[in-house]
Amino acid sequence: MKLTGKRIAYLVDEGFEDLEFWVPLMRLREEGAQVTIVAARMQTYHGKHCLEATPDILASQVSAEDFDSVVVPGGWAPDKLRRYPEVLNLVRGLYQQGKIVAAICHAGSVLISAGIVRGHKATGSTGIKDDLVNAGAEWVDQPAFRDGNLVWGRVVNDIPDFCRELVAALSTSG
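Above: the chain sequence. Below: its structure as C-alpha cells.
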C-alpha cells in the first residue's frame, strides 16, 4: 500500500460530482491513505446523482499542518466551497507548505479563489477554462497531470488518469 501514513483532506459540499468524489476517495483508501472528509458545515451532502457524503470534521477545525494533501472533487460543490474562507485557507496553506493539492473538473475554481493557480499549468472542465486563464494559469487539454504540487484532472471520463497521477504524486511527496 503506497500511501500508508498519508493524511488526506477531502472536501465536500452540496452538488458534488458523485464519481469524482467517491472513486478517487476509494482509490486513496485502497492505497492505505487516511482520508478525512472535510466540509464548511456539518450535514449530509448530496451528489449530483443522489449519492451522499457526510463530513468527518469542519474546515474551521483543521489546519494545513493536519494533512499531507487536499483533494477537491468537481460538480457544483466547488462553487460553494470557494465561498468559505476556512476552506480557502486550508487549500492555500497546504499549497504554501508544498503539499499536494488536487483538483478535478470544476474544482479548479476553489484553487482560483485560493489564489494558487497563477503560473501553473491547469486543466478541468472547459466550463472553467476562461476562469483559469484569467487567473493566470496556462490551460492544458490533457486528462490529468502534475505541475509542481498541483495535480489536475479534466472530467469524469479521466478519473482513472487522475487517480494514477494523484497516487504517484502522493507516493513521492513529503
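The chain has one domain: 7-172.
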